[in-house]
Amino acid sequence: MTVQLSNLEHLPNYQITERLDVVYGSTVRSKHVGKDLFAGLKNIVGGELTAYTELLEESRQEAIDRMIVKAEALGADAVVGLRFSTSSIAQGASELFVYGTAVKAIRMPQQPVYQSTNQPPNQSSNHHSQYEEPVASVAQPSTVKSPDDLPRFNPFGE
Question: With a threshold of 0.85, does the pTM exceed it?
Answer without folding.
Answer: no
